[in-house]
Specification:
Length: 222
């Protein structure tokens, strides 16, 4: 069975198209028109089907006579009221079943209605429900989806994992050759580096004495 109710995967292209048509409704709206306007990329055919379903354009994309008059209303509240009168007759079977409550039906209830009416798959039925919800929101029933952020700069936050802390910890050297290190628990430790200059003419006994002194006074000493 051919699908009679239009559908699209997200509300964004519908909302953008309606907003653009409120500014200027061309005498002809086709997929090529939407491409030139940069509206609904890769979703042009779906949007065109929705416009035809609402009797805003005819089969050839020509601007219809009556329904597009609603797009001349600049006030949002007046436009929503006029747009409601366009959407409601298009979904007459839904309103015959639920009355005015159709505007607020849950997603699952709408999916059930569309799948039963069109013998559509679950995926298509959900997209039909999404389409109706978007049109309902434009009619003043429900909230429009927030626009997706674009060209936003990503903010990188430092990782708080112990491994990342260990990787990013910096050693600060002072003039005495000491490193102050901070571990993942915030504990401060002191590492002292000693440079030993061995005499060129020293013998084994001299070297042993130097290292024994280091061990006694710095390593084993308190």
């Amino acid at each position: 069975m051919a699908t009679s109710y239009p559908y699209i995967s997200s509300a964004g292209p519908i909302v953008k198209t309606v907003e653009r048509l409120r500014k200027q409704f061309p005498a002809e709206v086709t997929a090529d028109t939407l491409k030139k306007l940069g509206i609904a990329p890769k979703n042009e055919s779906y949007v065109i089907n929705i416009l035809k379903f609402l009797d805003l354009i005819d089969g050839d994309g020509k601007k219809a006579t009556e329904n597009p008059k609603a797009f001349l209303l600049s006030e949002d509240a007046k436009f929503a009221a006029a747009f409601e009168k366009i959407v409601k007759p298009a979904y007459v079977a839904l309103f015959d079943l639920y009355g005015e409550d159709a505007w607020g039906q849950s997603r699952d209830e709408l999916v059930s209605f569309f799948r039963t009416s069109d013998s559509s798959s679950d995926v298509v039925g959900r997209r039909q429900a999404i389409t109706f919800e978007a049109l309902a929101a434009l009619s003043g029933h429900g909230e429009l989806a927030a626009p997706r952020a674009t060209n936003s700069k990503s903010t990188t936050t430092p990782s708080t994992s112990p491994a990342a802390k260990a990787k990013t910890a910096k050693s600060h050297q002072d003039g005495a050759g000491a490193d102050v290190l901070t571990n993942s628990k915030g504990t401060v430790g002191l590492t002292v580096r000693i440079e030993v200059n061995l005499p060129a003419n020293g013998d084994q006994k001299t070297y042993d004495a130097i290292f024994q002194s280091i061990r006694k006074n710095l390593i084993d000493g308190s």
